[in-house]
Each structure stands twice: as C-alpha cells, then as structure tokens.
Write a structure and sequence with these properties.
The protein has one domain: Lysozyme. Helix content is about 60%, strand content about 5%. The strands form two sheets. It has a two-stranded antiparallel sheet. Strands 3-4 form a two-stranded antiparallel ribbon. Helix 5 crosses helix 6, helix 5 runs parallel beside helix 8 and helix 8 packs across helix 9.
Length: about 220
Amino acid sequence: MEQAIRIPDTTTEEYAVLGQRQQQAYHLLAAHSDWVAAVLNGIPGPLRAVIQDNLSAAQQIDDLNGARTTLPHWRIIVPPTSDVLLGYYRESQQSSGVQWQYLAAINLIETNMGRIQGLSSAGAQGPMQFMPATWASYGRGDVNNPRDAILAAGRYLHAHGGPQNMTRAIYAYNPSWLYVRAVQLYAKQMFDDPHAFLGYYNWQVYVQTTKGEVLLPEGFTG
C-alpha cells in the first residue's frame, strides 16, 4: 500500500481505499508487534523506513492519549476534500512560512483532518484544536472553520519559532515530546513524498478504550 500511495497516477477513488487499508495494516501491526520484524524484512529499504516511522508516530500518540473508559462526545463528519485542505495548508504556508507538511501532520493528529467535531478533554476546539485563550490571540473568524483554523495554526507556529525552529514551535503547540515526535514523523513522510498526504487524508477515526480499539465512522454522534 505504501508503494501504491506513492504512484503519481493513483486516482482519488483508489486513495480512499488505499488510505483505509494502510491504516488498518498499521493497526494490525501495532496489535501484533511480534509480526513487525518479519514484515520489515520483506520490504525494500526506503519503504521499510516509512513503515517504521508511521508505527513509531502512532505509538507516540497512543502513549500520549492513553486509553479511554468511555467513548468521547464527538461528532464525526466528512472533512473538506484533500484538494481544499491542501489549498488551506499552502495558503497558511505562504503567509506564515510554516511548511504545509507540518500543518497537515497537526491536523491529522488533532482531528483526523477535521473529521472530529467536539471538545478535547482539555477544552480545545476546532479542526486544529485551539484553547479559547489561544484562539483569542491568534484566531480570526470561526475556530470551527477549517481555513480559519489552519491559518491561525500557521500564525501560532510562526510566533513560537517556526519555520526556523519547528521543534520549538510544535512543542509550544502541545508541550509533549511524544507529540513533537509524532508531528515530525508524519511531516517527514510528506516532505519525502507529498502523495503520503493522500493516504493520511483517508485515515478514519479510531479511539483506544480500556476494552479495545473502536472505529468511529463518519456520521457517529457520541
């Protein structure tokens, strides 16, 4: 799947299937860590690093979030199209200097590219998950509007060191080294090949609970 995602003439419809299969494969490997070595041994060198990085990024986020005892009170919606989102990332890059790959990685981690509507456990909101006080300083418009939120994220990251020091900027966005590492790993895949974004775009919302992993499909209302 990683190889197919990186073929330039892959269609939008194919990406929808490939992205979901890619995500399912990573979830399977995460659940069966004893399979990882055998799988990696059969993969060509460059793609082996991709798989290792994606597994590592997911582990960082799992370690950061932990397992929930109940399902979250979220709505799962259809996000803007990949072309529309990429346009917002590039617009934010043009105004802030922060490369679009970092914005896409943050959007992926925070709300699966805007699929999640609802407050975080800390009270953050919108597709880029802003706290109210932070939005008051950096936001313009509606915190729940994808374009407004992505532009605000660029402004925030720029104000905190980006694009020159993205490690510092990402840490300011969420002061956890697990979070920083995950953002950098996902962004790296998109720097290496922009087609990686189209795989991530099609990832669905899964929640780790104390009873196991749960898929929250588009249309879910918690």
